TrEMBL record:
Residues 168-267 form the HTH araC/xylS-type domain. This is HTH araC/xylS-type domain-containing protein. It comes from the Bacteria. It comes from Lentilactobacillus fungorum. PANTHER family: ARAC-FAMILY TRANSCRIPTIONAL REGULATOR (PTHR43280), HTH-TYPE TRANSCRIPTIONAL REGULATOR EXSA (PTHR43280:SF2). Keywords: DNA-binding, Transcription, Transcription regulation. PROSITE patterns: HTH_ARAC_FAMILY_2.
Length: 268
């Protein structure tokens, strides 16, 4: 089963380019890569995936995520054996930032898929059968959930009730108050746990402390503001996302994006 979509007329954070499962996979050869991010997992048989001339087997319950415009090729390891796959290709105006958050460079290989991740495409497929605006918004939300499942798989996330009691209120507070000064003690007041314990649980989930997550989130917001408001002064952008020290903002932005805010503006 396979669905393919045109790019939506409205600017979307994430949108689905194609999705499918129980697909009898034939040879795919893209020397110049693909314009969308591409997820591929094996359901039956074994495939061989070549990315920038490096080969990897893709066995049942394994998956791989490939960055846009990266040369790749994949096919069944045995021309006499069927290779059945599930796949998901997506793009959107927030896709690059989310892939940076995920740590994607050229590709990410997942040697064992959790049940939730392994069945995501099967269980979410019906959400993608409609193509109206409301459905497209819901699909964007589903794609975000998929990316978070990949993040969980990358870090072997503790998804227990106790962990979610800590992670969710921290995320809610950070996203609501990122433009203001935030301390670990303020976050502890939201969770009711000690700073040391909450930071350990949060780091097991996201691979970074809450304040490092906050710093990265602010920089992603700053990049968005620079894109939307190229006429804004650098200091205004920094202040709007919670950096009161303009020198620190410029330093952190360059560390994260390898460009100063001014250099980024000049590239647009």
């Amino acid at each position: 089963m396979r669905l393919a979509f045109k790019q939506p007329s409205q600017d979307m954070p994430l949108f689905c380019e194609s999705i499918g499962y129980e697909w009898q996979q034939s040879l795919v050869n893209r020397p110049n890569g693909y314009y969308a991010f591409h997820w591929l997992q094996t359901e039956m048989g074994t495939g061989i995936v070549t990315i920038n001339r490096q080969q990897r087997l893709l066995k049942p319950n394994q998956g791989i995520l490939i960055r846009t415009n990266v040369s790749h090729r994949y096919q069944s390891i045995d021309t006499h054996q069927k290779w059945q796959t599930a796949f998901l290709a997506f793009a959107g105006n927030q896709a690059d930032e989310l892939m940076t958050f995920l740590g994607l460079k050229t590709s990410l290989f997942f040697p064992a898929l959790s049940p939730e991740l392994a069945t995501f495409i099967h269980q979410s497929y019906a959400q993608f059968e409609r193509n109206d605006l409301v459905a497209t918004l819901r699909q964007s939300s589903e794609l975000y959930r998929f990316i978070m499942l990949l993040k969980q798989a990358e870090y072997g996330i503790d998804n227990t009730y106790q962990a979610q009691k800590i992670v969710r209120p921290i995320l809610a507070y950070l996203t609501a108050h990122y433009h203001s000064a935030i301390t670990n003690e303020q976050l502890a007041a939201q969770t009711g746990y000690s700073v040391a314990y909450q930071n350990r649980i949060f780091k097991s989930t996201y691979g970074q402390t809450p304040l490092k997550y906050l710093n990265d989130y602010r920089l992603q917001k700053a990049k968005r503001l620079l894109t939307l408001h190229p006429d804004w002064q650098i200091q205004l952008v920094g202040n709007s996302v919670g950096f009161n020290d303009i020198s620190r903002f410029i330093h952190e932005f360059k560390q994260y994006y390898h460009l100063t805010p001014r250099q980024f503006k000049q590239m647009m």
